[in-house]
Design a protein that fits this description.
With 126 residues, the protein is mainly β. The chain is built from no helices and nine strands. The N and C termini lie far apart (30 Å).
Length: 126
């Protein structure tokens, strides 16, 4: 059984159209901005989160609507995932990339939503 862990964070930018994107810690306590490679802490699971508003971040569990970019390197079921500069989940393919999730679906296009399992972050081994 997968445990689910959600938390509330304050947006430091307009995230109103970013449900399903990876987020990272912002500069203020309990804040968030779009996630970048190696810094993602979870998935924004709430819509219409404007700058300065609270939003829910899924930190652990199964997320059924994660936004991916499989256009450069396709994502297959079971692949380790990290995020790109836009907060989209991509295949972690380089040793040392921080893995935040595992793909439970496939993606070969930009903007595809798939199911992922959020994990405790770890560096991709060589």
């Amino acid at each position: 059984m997968t445990q689910i862990f959600n938390e509330t964070r304050i947006a430091e930018a307009d995230l109103s159209s970013k449900v399903g994107y990876g987020v990272k810690r912002g500069t203020a306590a309990k804040s968030m901005v779009l996630g970048t490679a190696g810094a993602c802490i979870g998935v924004l699971i709430e819509t219409d989160v404007a700058n300065g508003q609270a939003g829910t971040v899924m930190r652990k569990g199964i997320c059924e609507f994660a936004v991916t970019d499989g256009s450069g390197t396709a994502i297959a079921v079971g692949d380790p995932l990290t995020t790109n500069a836009s907060g989209k989940f991509i295949k972690a393919a380089t040793a040392g990339h921080m893995v935040i999730a595992r793909a439970e679906g496939a993606s070969s296009a930009d903007g595809t939503q798939i199911t992922i399992e959020l994990l405790d972050a770890y560096p991709l081994p060589a």
